[in-house]
Write a structure and sequence with these properties.
Blueprint lengths: L3 H12 L3 E3 L11 E3 L1 H20 L4 E3 L8 H6 L2 H4 L1 E6 L6 E3 L18 E4 L2 E4 L9 E4 L4 H6 L1 H8 L5 E10 L14 E11 L4 H18 L7 E5 L12 E7 L7 E11 L1 H10 L5 E3 L4 E3 L2 E8 H12 E5 L12 E5 L10 E5 L4 H15 L4 E3 L5 H11 L3 E5 L1 H6 L1 E6 L5 E5 L3 H9 L2
Parallel strand pairs: 3-9, 19-20, 19-21
Antiparallel strand pairs: 1-2, 4-5, 4-6, 7-8, 9-10, 10-16, 11-12, 12-13, 13-16, 14-15, 17-18, 21-22, 22-23
Helix pairs in contact: 2-9
The chain binds glycyl-adenosine-5'-phosphate.
Glycyl-adenosine-5'-phosphate binds next to strand 10, strand 13, strand 16 and helix 9.
């Protein structure tokens, strides 16, 4: 069930070009969405902020971009062909199918009774090459993690890293979810931001505790409100087949029964994967400890976040409606004003340049100013409609700074910079604008 807030977010996302239903002219495809002109910017900014804090600013992390298609033996060794199942139930009356753990005793669509639950493998099958026989069969990866595990020996050799160190990867993953839904929360094609952090077995509890905290700080540092986010420790019986302990970072999504649902999982995968690949392939998946002169199979801590869920959570977290509007000087009054309070690092456009009138003496320099800002940041330019309306258009998509070029600007070479959140206006010299914004936008 979508709440009113979700309906508003979905509507804003469509109206302003964040997210569209995939394959729309053909009636769509359930569980597949397209990110529009603003959506792709927000998504890219989420991924860039993750990479910056988890890779660039650390000395113990390297990156990887592994193939989505992998040898089927990978999925057999990793346990996914055996364990990646959800229990499926089917309504005896309308024949709609559901994940057993997501429904009660009767069908939510018609009230009918369910069949016995049966296991359903979530991996999307495909075949590689011109002959679609059994040998050509493999799966679209259901997690990016296995690419990191199978490349562990070569990453170790080429990066010359010592334990502890981690490998980060951002990429698409696919699951044939029984019931995709809640907009981009649960989809069949999605993107993950995953870290496999390799450490000595005895150091894994410390590494787990540190990543747990570090990952929470990352969300909070991007403006996630404390009341919207929390830890959830899994009971032993609910752990994935590879995990010795998992904590989720949950977000208060405005749907579902209790609202709270998974944004990111932080798992202690022990040596499960490296040992499994060593056994199945006969290759070495060890780290040589120079001091003790022994080979060890590292243990792994895995913080794994969904890009699409992050996207949705940041939209929900930032969305605010102000009845009557915030401004008393424009036609905004009496309307409901929407402000998307995205962290500046995430905002699709960092700035918008708005000439006060369409007269060439203003639009000429305003366009030149826009071009100079565009060499650094995504910058919008808008000369259509009243200034109040243009401010509100930018507020609604989360642009942190609007820059107005007015008649005085022609003489004093200054512009007005309006802050999205405080609505404060500062008069800034055009020559000072880039350092001014750089300071405000630094992350
Ligand atoms: N490698 C570990 C792993 O894949 P997971 O908890 O199954 O763990 C990690 O997935 C994250 O990927 C989740 O926290 C969620 O954000 C995202 N995710 C998983 N399934 C998803 C789906 N069907 N749609 C959108 N995001 C999904």
């Amino acid at each position: 069930m979508q709440t009113e807030k979700m309906e508003k977010i979905v509507s804003l996302a469509k109206r302003r070009g964040f997210v569209f239903a995939g394959s729309a002219p053909y009636g769509g495809l359930q569980g597949a969405w397209d990110y529009g002109p603003l959506g792709v910017l927000l998504k890219n900014n989420i991924k860039a902020a993750w990479w910056k804090k988890n890779v660039q600013e650390r000395g113990d992390m390297v990156g990887l971009d592994s193939a989505i298609l992998m040898n089927r033996k990978v999925w057999e060794a990793s346990g996914h062909t055996k364990f990646m199942f959800d229990d499926l139930v089917e309504c005896r009356s309308c024949h709609h199918r559901f994940r057993r753990d997501k429904v009660g005793g009767e069908c939510p669509d018609c009230g009918g009774t369910f069949t016995e639950a049966r296991p359903f493998n979530l991996m999307l099958e495909t075949s590689v090459g011109p002959v679609a026989d059994e040998a050509a069969k493999t799966f679209l990866r259901p997690e990016t993690a296995q690419g990191i595990f199978v490349e562990f020996p070569l990453i170790l050799e080429t990066s010359r890293k010592k334990l502890p160190f981690g490998v980060a990867q951002i990429g698409k993953a696919f699951r044939n979810e029984i019931t995709p839904g809640n907009f981009v929360f649960r989809t069949r094609e999605f993107e993950q931001m995953e870290i496999e952090y390799f450490c000595r077995p005895e150091d894994s509890p410390k590494a787990f505790a540190e990543w747990r905290e570090r990952r929470m700080q990352w969300w909070l540092g991007l403006g996630m409100r404390k009341e919207n986010i929390r830890f959830y420790d899994y009971p032993k019986e609910a752990l994935a087949h590879y995990s010795a302990g998992t904590t989720d970072i949950q977000f208060a999504f405005p749907f579902g029964s209790g609202g709270w649902d998974e944004l990111e999982g932080i798992a202690n995968r022990t040596d499960f994967d490296l040992s499994a690949h060593a056994k199945a392939s006969g290759e070495e998946f060890t780290f040589f400890d120079d001091e003790a002169k022994v080979k060890i199979i590292p243990h792994v801590i895995e913080p794994s976040a969904g890009v699409d869920r992050a996207f949705l959570a940041f939209l929900i977290n930032g969305y605010e409606e102000i009845a009557g509007g915030r401004s008393t000087t424009t036609e905004a009054t009496k309307e409901v004003e929407t402000v998307l309070r995205l962290h500046p690092a995430l905002a699709p456009y960092k700035a918008a340049v708005l000439p006060l009138s369409k007269k060439p003496e203003l639009t000429g320099p305003a366009r030149a100013l826009t071009a100079s800002l565009r060499s650094r940041w995504m910058t919008d330019y808008d000369e259509v409609a009243s200034i109040g309306r243009r401010y509100r258009r930018q507020d609604e998509i989360g642009t942190p700074f609007c820059i107005t070029y007015d008649f005085e600007s022609v003489d004093d070479r200054k512009v007005t910079v309006r802050d999205r959140d405080t609505m404060e206006q500062a008069r800034v010299a055009v020559d000072e604008l880039i350092p001014y914004l750089e300071e405000k936008l630094k992350y």
